[in-house]
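Record type: monomer structure entry
Structure origin: computed from sequence
Chain ID: A
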Amino acid sequence: MAAETVLVPDATWWRQAAVYQIYPRSFADANGDGIGDLRGIISRVPYLAALGVDAVWLSPFYPSALADGGYDVADYRDVDPRIGTLAEFDEMVAALHAAGLRVIVDIVPNHSSDEHSWFQEALASAPGSAARERYIFRDGLGADGEIPPSDWDSVFGGPAWERITEPDGTPGQWYLHTFAKEQPDFNWDNPEVLEDFLKTLRFWSDRGVDGFRVDVANLLVKDLPETLPSRAELEGLDRDSGTHPLMDRDEVHEIYADWRAVFNEYDPPRTAVAEAWVDSPVRRAKYAAPTGLGQAFNFDLLTADFDPEAFRRIVTENLAQSATTGSSSTWVLSNHDVTRHATRYGLPPLGDRMGVKQGIEWMIAGAPADGVDPALGLARARAATLFLLALPGSTYLYQGEELGLQEVGDLPADARQDPAYHRSVNQPDWSYDGLGRDGCRVPLPWTASGTSFGFGPGGAHLPQPEWFGGFSVEVEESDPGSTLHLYREALRLRRTLQGAETLDWVETSGPEVLGFLRPGGWLTVTNFGGTPVPLPEGEPLLTSAPLDGGLLPGSATAWLRVPEPVASA
């Protein structure tokens, strides 16, 4: 049954939207089993509406064995019973729409769970069968096929091939898994795979979903000759040509053209945003084409240090890219895969800010022995957030960043769930994400105390630290200077200030200060440096830190309404 929407149809709503990512297992738990659920999301719709976002994006909520936090999908057209039911999904969509919020869901097309009915059918079928052709199966090398078809590594470490036992009990073929062994890759040369995903897109669109986030959108199509290249040969190939055997092949856009045709069957058309880790803006632009998915994540700010030169270059390049594609840019500082930016910005510059390397032990409270400065990290995070929210284009916020949450880095090993962590421990030379991604997935604190800080009436599936209570919604609601109130006011003002998707860089007081002007006299100034700087003439609308004779050093952004045009730099 389609969820009724009360939203005004708008085909361009996504262009400057603020989208709030919900990791369902860790957002709110209504039934007390320690796992977040759809009923918990429904209970928090007033909170989301008050925050001022335009849409929510749900990470996978499908049936899953949770080998990779739900990104191992056993059924693409159902809800995990631990999270809810299809009826509750419809109720959630209706509640969000009634509150003026649109809904984006995660689609995981590169691989399924090994518990998916198709893969179970493949295991029960013979080599060369139609069931196996939906996935990527190969005979092994060696006299008895005991050697994997190639020496490739999976993204999570270890070999990218897993051998199966044939129905007759003998050692059999191998299947490709780019990620965990429980996530077999689909064969996208098989028309049956394409048709099934088109069915899935219609299934959720008919239920009122407004858009889709496409997981690892660049990996679907693969060109696998009879003799596979070695890992060393792959590393020497050009990844920017559209012809790499395993990633970002030009043929993938034929798939997304078919998806776009489905999206356009609806009024307004359904939207999509690609998660595509590619090597150049030119390649990323192909995913954002109006004939394809229409928008692609740019993670450049997410992987940059708190540095004015880097911020300016990234913004300039991405706005130019957006102008070329006709899409709008997407700005991100945190998500479910990376260390929270309130913690990243408290670390010494490391260049690659994706995660935290193995061996760092977090000490969030007090004077950190590992070089983390949580106060500086939070101040910079608040400044970077105001910088980001002032940019033209859409922005994606991750649950809990509006509370200024730090990463939970000291989770005990036996509590960690991320396969990236466990593979890193077993393979010291492999550092996909060091301590793993569990630290940003710890269930949210809603109250200052309680068995799960208000996450639910029971415990939480990942342990919450004692300091979480000080970052709770309850505590921050009562503090006008809290990060929660900063986000609410910024999102409120953003709606009134957004205009044409342009900006002009302006003259500032020094190289460590960035300023840009948006249409209507909206000026944003950020101080990345070590000394206070005076504010330009104008009406201060919002600042990330209190003004004290000017903009504080190294950690502050201000929004101003300026009376006269500011000369472009």
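Annotation 1: Residues 351-369, 428-433 have pLDDT under 50 and may be disordered.
Annotation 2: The longest strand covers residues 102-107.
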